[in-house]
Amino acid sequence: METILKMRNIRRHYVMPSGTVKALDGIDLEVSEGERIILLGPSGSGKTTLLNCLSALDSPTSGSYSFSGSLVPSNDSEKMTKFRRDNIGYVFQFFNLLQDLTVLENLLLIQELAGSRDEARARELLGLVGLADEIDRFPAEISGGQQQRVAIARSLAKTPRLLLGDELTGNLDSKTSTAVMEVLVKACEAEGITCVFVTHDESLVEFATRVIRIDSGKILSDENVE
Amino acid sequence: MLVLLTKRLARSLLRTKLRLAAVSAMVMVAVFAGISFAAYAHTVSGMYDEIYEDSDQGVNLPDVWVENPSGTWDANMSNMICEEISNEWPDSSLVLNDCEPRLRLDGTMFHSIIEDASESEKLVPAVWHGIDEGRIDRVWIPEHDCCSGRLASSDSEIVIDQRVASGMEIELGDNVSIGAGSGRMSFTVVGIGFQSNHLYFAPEGSLFPAEPGTFATGYLSSSGLERLANISSGSSNIILIDVLGTPDYDIPTTDEDEGTDLSPLVSSIDETISNLEDNPSLVYDRSQVFSVEILRADAEGAMLFYVPVTGMIAAIAGITIFLSLQRLVQSQSREIAILRTLGIPRYAIMPAYFLMPLAIGVIGGALGVILAVTLGVPGMLGFYEEVVGVPIIESTDIFPLTVQILSVTILVVMTSGVLPAIQASRLQPLEIMRGQHEIRISSRRIQALTSRLPATVGLTVRSSIRKPTRLVFTFLAVGLSMLLFGSTLLMMSTMEEITIGSIEEGQNWDVQANVPFGGEGEVIEWAEEKGAEYQKLLIFPVNPVNDSRVITAYGIEEISTGSDSMIVVDLRTGSIPESGKQTSEILIDEGLSHFLGWEVGDTGTLAFGSELKSVDIVGITQGELSRTVYFHRSDLSEVIGIEATSVLINLPEGVEADSELAEVSLGITEKDDLIASYEGMLEQQQSFLGGILLLGIIIAIVVLFNTLLMNLSERDKEIATLRVLGAPIKRLGWMMFGEHLAIGLIGGVLAFFFTLAGTQAMISSFVQWSFFMTVKVDPIVAAQLVGVVVFTSVALTPYGMWRISRMDLVEKVKDLSQ
After folding, report:
1. Which of B52, B64, B115, B599 could be bridged to B241 by S-S, CB 3.0 to 4.6 A?
2. 0.90 cut: is pTM over it?
3. Under an 8 A CB cutoff, do B817 and A167 touch?
4. Does this complex have an ipTM over 0.90?
């Protein structure tokens, strides 16, 4: 498999009144295309910071991060936004769907903002996550699990190369979590998308191809599970 | 606990310092404007009562006037009229106190001007009164810096109106050269004062005070005026009738007849005069004396408007506070839910939401009182003295007014906390914790309407109307503040149109020379000598039948809507009258149509004294302030037996009106002077109206910014989501621009209609027989109104974009995951 991203000695330090906090402290990471990685770790371990750096929401204090062989922009808000737009899909814990738009329109909006509206693909993705019959409903009219599936479809709507999720099942019960993850895996496999998910939930390991444990800003373990 | 909860809310509010300062400033403005207007209204209202009072200090304003518009009565006739009025006095509760014949004539003041070491003479149109010691309608020389001297006692003395003295720099002891159609004479100034007919110092036919040096009035002894006009001793053209006390009269701005005793008396005197005199005469009460009526209407208007104006600004402040508190409840819902979960009762949550508006009201109110006392009240009274030119002898006690205004304002502002307080107390902790209070289903209808649009546009439209209550209140507040701005703008444009516009476009003459009856020949001779074009003009007062209200009848040589005529009529409907018809064809102004219900095709009857004349109404004109009918001069002349009262002259290049013309005229009006007067007046009002204009815009900006800022901050989560998902700032900026443009356009158009309706209501509440106007909707004004709101709204887009660019997405993602 081809390497999609490569991080070398990534550090992210925050200067606080109480001293410097080393959220990431020399992370080395290589991810191949099609991998599904689960990032596990206790609160404050640095997993969300790593996810932020991966998505170019945050810029590392030092180190290098390349994606598809090119350096990922840092400290330039618009270039970082463009990188996300072109490459990244993001699923939040609380779905964060736009309440004024229907299920279908939530997907179309993302496509329009990325510059390419493709309604057929949006419908296809909603079919893929099992929501073909709910496309004209508003988010408030469907269940939490369904909303998260819409969020997944939305994150895939502009065909990202890397899909990131932060505690994406944290707001769902275990049965719904499993259903959502199954949908996600199915969709990512169908689209050939690489995934990195942050979670506390050890039970999600069964959906991963690789599990990375992190603590105090360092990778403790990195193992393939398939 | 209450203290802690209030402290908590206060700290939250203090975080939005700009908004807090803005609403406090609005309260301040409401109190400031309220007290200033109230002080003005009460002061001028009380002042007129004192000036007109039947006392040693007052001038003893007459109760009934009898006027001879077509000539003068000699001494015998004058005395006979008074005797006959006394003899025929009706069976009434009103008792005749006095009857005094007077002479009042138009004329000219020859005013010397020294410019660049050369002396020139300006011909100033004037009105001269013959007033001896007098028991009725005395000359008013108050004990004030403005005035000095005594009444004219010899036939070479004159009291000059204070505005003339200050405008032309005339002092006691100076000699002035004046005329009244029979050459010129010199008179010594022995007094500087005022007279009830000219307290509001506007030339006849004008709504606005004259510019200094363009109009003169003087009060001579009876013998002095008789000598000036070469008229026999004891002649008069006005009879002043005073009854004991001050009876009520019919106020023109109300529908009811307040003059239940006086109106029958006026009719009875009218009948007496008709039986005595063939020539048409006018009999009327004080409502038909322009100066008296306009000052009453001004005081009444100020009295009527200061409470709504204060209430309006306070309401805008109240709406802004209400919206801010509502937003605060929303943003603090979790805190409130936690407090409620911890056992804080509902009633403990509420008081803080009442106390905050109270605090804002007290702080803003106190600042408003300080500003009003130090600047507003002196400024308003000073403005009045400057524009109207009457000194404020005694101003009203503002303490009770301050208490009244402050109470009303604080009450209005406090009301704004009621709903947020109830909403805060009714929040359900469980729903909040589950986040259910934030879940709402968007409108299916709006979704259907916008479903075919791109999702970005659909979202823009739906976001704009996401909070309909807030939007409605915002539009209401913007509409109210634009009412201040827009009505001022509309009034300014309407006033400019009916003053300068109507003269520039409707009057194609250079000089109007008033002539004594039968004296037009000498003026025409002068015009022919100078090679000037001229037209005779006949202006005569008439009445509707059994109605003492005065209509000015114009007899025009050539009635036309084109610029070829010296007087151009602005025909709203109908056609131009034809001359020489058995029943004269006339045009009436739209005010007359409004008050008498006359329409095109109707046949009306006009009273020329005792003679009634049927007329066919063939058209309705617009743009006249006072009630007007237009005849062909030949038709009108046939009825009243006079050829002309004025001659309109178009001067050839290089020719000017000179003293030769002035000496054979009863006053000369130059068109350029008239325009300069109006321009001067409008300019004088610019700073005052400009202040109101600015105030309206600032309030509208504050209200709109407040709502849009709340909308923006509420959408942080949504925008952060889009940013994380890769939405570029530029694209979000366009969406925001579209939303602000839509809100601006809707708000602007609504504000315009609000303003139009408000201004129309305002104008219709003070229009009356003596001055009627309709709002002219100038498209430029409409565009300005809408433009201001759109611009204000759209101007927030760069701020919104700047806010997005500063958004810490890492922090936002944390929020999104919590």
Report:
1. B64
2. no
3. yes
4. no
